[in-house]
From TrEMBL:
This is AAA family ATPase. SUPFAM superfamilies: P-loop containing nucleoside triphosphate hydrolases. The lineage of its organism: Bacteria, Pseudomonadati, Pseudomonadota, Alphaproteobacteria, Caulobacterales. Pfam families: AAA_33 (PF13671).
């Protein structure tokens, strides 16, 4: 498989990064997790759980835009990519729509086959996953009290021809990756 983009979108804790690493390995793809562009900025401001200074998200968005444009314009021909995108608001925040639009634009500009995978997870598993220490080290959401509201989010209402909705409750990361890979192969060979 060449020139494929897998776009994993869903609330924090559903397994986007973990599954993304597996998919990237299987497709010999470059994983560009949403923290790929946030963490350089977070490393500078050292978030401590309180509100971030005004303008910090603007800087992270500048990094994201530069990375995505670089992928679209200069990424090696035939290179596969896996993108992750954390959504925490019902229907998505205005910025979520900008991010989604940019990722779709990257795939279109590259002439890539794009599979949008909308991940969800039940409240109990989200609560457990969000509280894990490794998330804190990567500057990820660790407030397990958000599990109820995150679990109740509907799928991000993006419109695309190739969409796979997966509930990761009760699935291992490998099982989730298996389902994504099977769907991708099925669609590419249809």
């Amino acid at each position: 498989m060449n020139n494929v983009v897998v776009y994993l979108v869903g609330p924090p804790g559903v397994g986007k990064y973990t599954v993304g690493k597996l998919i990237a390995d299987r497709l010999s793809a470059k994983l560009l997790d949403n923290h790929f562009w946030c963490n350089p900025i977070f490393e500078v401001v050292e978030p401590d759980g309180t509100a971030l200074p005004a303008g910090v998200w603007d800087r992270a968005n500048d990094v994201m835009s530069a990375v995505l444009e670089t992928v679209a314009r200069f990424g090696p021909a035939g290179r596969n990519y896996v993108f992750t995108h954390a959504v925490s608001d019902p229907g998505g925040h205005a910025l979520d729509w900008v991010i989604a639009g940019q990722i779709l634009w990257v795939a279109e500009r590259r002439g890539a086959s794009l599979l949008v995978v909308r991940l969800a997870c039940g409240e109990e598993q989200l609560r457990e996953r969000i509280a894990r220490e490794e998330r804190r080290r990567r500057f990820k959401t660790t407030d397990a009290g958000m599990a109820d509201s995150l679990a109740s989010l509907g799928p991000f209402p993006i419109n695309h021809d190739w969409i796979l909705d997966l509930d990761t409750s009760g699935l291992s990361a490998a099982e989730t990756a298996d389902r994504i890979e099977t769907e991708l192969i099925s669609r590419l060979h249809a």
